[in-house]
Write the structure tokens for this entry.
Amino acid sequence: MNKEHLELYTDYLLSTFGYATATGLSAMVNGQVSHDQVTRFLSEREYTSKDLWHEVKPMVRKVEREDAALILDDTIQEKPYTDENEVMCWHYDHSKGRAVQGFNLLNCLYQVGDISIPVAFELIKKPIEYCDLKTRKLKRASLVTKNELMRAMLDVCVQNELLFRFVLFDTWFASKENMSHIKETLKKDFICALKTNRLVAVSDEDHQANRFTPIDELSWQEETLFTGWLKDVPFPVQLVRQVFNNKDGSTGTLYLACSNSTVKRGLILATYQKRWPIEVFHKSLKQNAALGKAPVRRVTTQNNHVFAVLYATFKLECLKIQRHLNHFALRAHLYLKAIRVAFDELQVLKAA
């Protein structure tokens, strides 16, 4: 890896407020680095999660604690006008309830206190092309599922001897395979959200008789905590419910499962709130580090741009720690500086 070019490119991603192009970077440094050098850096080889860990490891080792959490989630960056390939293709967006064209990024975020560090990532690839018999449209499929990728990422985090207490994830990753892998294979604990129709048994009798009830039909009270079994999950979990008010005045309900039988309701709810930083992290990738603003078209350059964006956001996190300003305040500071320079230059041009 050309570390000098990585630092330059990621600084450029954090500095630019338009499209991030090789030509634009070269112009910014007055041609000291050519367009071709930037292009070669983005296409020389495919940077992976291992490369990301190599860059963030020193900081992780400084801040890691036993009470930290690993947060797993994915995000989609829409790119409707970019040519389709195995990375830049159609993915189902749960937030919109439909498929969108772009790339799908699976992230593992290390959360300790108010510090968020990306420690692993995978771009979802769909190399298999097939014809849907019902719609007669050409579609793509992956060789491995996102759940399999998630488990592999957790395996690597454990192999890297990361200190953490819980793995946090939402309903889309709350499969029996993921739960069993975390609890029984990795010997770790998780807290995850459950869908309202998830089947549970809250007594030994019902469990032995294979009688399961949708979780939203249990006799919930305000402070209820059930110890029960999820259908097809081989160990008991703690089950809690939280009712909250949305900004639009509507009421929402969150059901959570925790694999640690000694944890109380309040700690389960407080710990799961630590999952929110990954939503902020994904927003920062898109708004502060130009995730969707590079006209890269080949699989390798697309992958390497995403790698650079993750590293750039990590650098922004390091600045946050030093300056005590969040990512968006830091970018606003840069934007104001850029406007002042442009304004001063305009005055010079007018006076000439």
Observations:
- DSSP finds eleven helices and 13 strands in the chain.
- Residues 71 and 168 are 5 Å apart (CA to CA).
- The first strand starts at residue 69 and ends at 78.
- The chain has a mean pLDDT of 93.
